Amino acid sequence: MIHTLRTLFTFSLALLLMIYTSPAYAQNPQQYPTLILTPDGVAAIKATLGNAPLLTSSFQETKQSTDALMSAGINVHMPKDAGGGFTHEQHKRNYKAMHQAGILFQVTGEDKYLQYVKNMLNAYAKLYPTLGLHPERKEQSPGKLFWQSLNDCVWLVYTIQAYDAVKGQLSQQEIQNIEKNLFYPAARFLSEESAETFDKIHNHGTWAVAAVGMTGYVLNDKKLVQQALYGLDEKGTGGFMAQLDQLFSPDGYYTEGPYYQRYALMPFVVFAQAIANNEPQRKIFSYRDNILLKAINTALQLTYDMKFFPFNDALKEKDLRSVELVYGTNIAYAHTQDKRLLSIAEKQGEVILSAEGVQVAKALDNKEVQPFNFTSMELRDGAKGNEGAVGVLRSGIQDKDEALVMKYSSQGMGHGHFDKLTWLFYDNGSEIIQDYGAARYLNVEAKYGGHYLPENKTWAKQTVSHNTVLVNEQSHFGGNYDLGMKSFPTSRFFDVSNKDVQVMSAEIKEVYPGVNFTRTMAMLRDEAFDNPIILDVFEINAKDSQQQYDLPLYYQGQLINTNFDVQNNSSQLKAVGQKNGYEHLWQVAQGKLPAGTVQVTWLNGDRFYTYSTIGSENAEMLFTRIGANDPNFNLRNEPGLMLRKKGNAGQTVFVSVLEPHGEFNAKDEYTTQASSQIKSLRLQEQDGAKIIWIETMNGDLRAFTLATNPAVKSKHNIKTQSGKLNWVGPYHYFKLKK
């Protein structure tokens, strides 16, 4: 393939080299461009085109895309549509076309790209002074070109790069017109006139400071740069440096979650690279112990099969091929030379057209790639790393190996959900235990203008849409955002020292008045099972009696069977509840849980999954489906289970095991190991510890012990009917003979 690409582009490269020496390109005496693409970057692209296939194909794709966009002419319309509407999308196409045309002008010197950018900028310079706030403006942070100022910020980040690419070819009169009527007013609107957003520690603020700061560099306006770095008062209460200090944990975790970490990375990374190119003495990529480079690595780690873990407001369609991570991966590689990043770039299938992209393309061409290891890790949340965490347990280093994710992080600001101690599970290349993510159809105007749907508040943010416990059908913290922001879980322990027994545990107090939660989850690799199994122990401690506890589980797959009687509501459906998200759940069936081991099995792809739990006389299981009270069909109709218990004052415990097993082979028409290997699951509490007994169909006996005292050096000695259990620390996994 590499040989073919080289052959295909030999002639075009020779033609381009003739163009590079044309008078139009040689006339530029100034040091433009100065942001992401630089004169050195331009030279590197020229020298490498035709020799590094990924750079060459990326260049050709950019050229084809830009030529197609340019063929539509200059279309700068008066803004009138919300997200997804015609004018909204046209202004997006315009900034993309300008940005790419600017790069192509620098690389090829072709006058058509220069004239296109210049004409587009002149058109915007004529339009911008006539604009008020957008007619479809959002209630908060309205924009001018777009319905929200966030989109105006994105427009400016791209458009200033286009101007940066052509400024050296413009007359002083043209420069004065464009800067006076477009860039200064746009920068002023996004800073002084949108002060609350500009100084906000939030991804909207990040985009704003990046847009204004990059504009400051191109306009050679030091005040704009200082305000972008340190806030409008230039004292550090806001601005880019405060964003770096407060939005990332010491591990590089972004407080709004993986999806918004992806989105926020773009302004963080491009502005940082612009700072590095203009003020290298700041050593911005070394700031706060390389926090931006950590953030890029963390974003990569928070994925499965390239897709981001979708907790908090998140759209599941986004993956590592998004433009933000292409920039992040390329720039991170340029600053670290970490060969493992090359395997991510290889999957992305493109590079950015800059010196950084050239480095990646050349390294790939030289076959320097090393595998990126996806590892088990605990990522702390909060600027100081003391506001909970996200725990990730993986069965291997490949991106399709089993992955167990437990979220015990902070609220996550406005995009956070009420989902303390929830979890997700991936296996066999699929999402098995899911998080719903956000209720939104991005840029689909017919769906609420492309904005977050009303059901994002009534369903997706509510606790019942997640895999965690609810008390009396109320969301965590009563759904109160301010209260949620003040409370966060605490990690009890996280231990992955033994790859066969990986365990994490967290707790949170006063999720409800007088109610505390503790959850411990383990990934256990054991020869008694086909694949690693997942153990879940959820402890509830309450002061009051007669509480109702619900533990939902949203699985992906087709229900196969249960080992208890289920009553199906086949003739009439009703919602599980009246509010707090319960009104969006159809109750399609229910069954009382007998004492002993209760099991539900479903099929996902070619693998079976059995969820085993412990039944009792005061427990039942509801079978649910999302979609009740949804007149506009905004919600995905997906299945779930709900364990329900009546609890008294004191402790109530949910114990369950998720077991992947067997194979369903449709091609060759056979099925193996379609039934669970777990014969019984039992909880015993003795001498300050919980013992979870697991007996297999083959007669194997396992005991997972969980001490009340999580101290690492605490010693425990317990006599049981199956023998002595001696261990040190908060837990142990025993393999015994019955």
Write a concise keyword list for the protein shown above:
alpha+beta; Glycosyltransferase; eight-stranded antiparallel β-sheet; seven-stranded antiparallel β-sheet; 19 helices; 26% strand; disordered N terminus
- CATH secondary-structure class of the largest domain: Mainly Alpha
> How many domain regions?
3
- What is the general shape? elongated
Computed over alpha carbons, the radius of gyration is 28 Å
- Total helical segments: 19
Helix content, binned percent: 25-40%
What structural class should be given to the helix and strand makeup?
A: alpha+beta
Tell me the strand percentage band: 25-35%
Please provide a written account of the structure.
- By secondary structure, this protein is an alpha+beta fold.
- It has 3 domains: 2-365, Glycosyltransferase (Alpha/alpha barrel), CATH 1.50.10.100; 377-676, Beta-galactosidase, Chain A, domain 5 (Distorted Sandwich); 677-738.
- A hairpin with a 2-residue loop joins strand 28 and strand 29.
- Helix 10 packs parallel to helix 13.
- Residues 1-30 have low confidence and may be disordered.
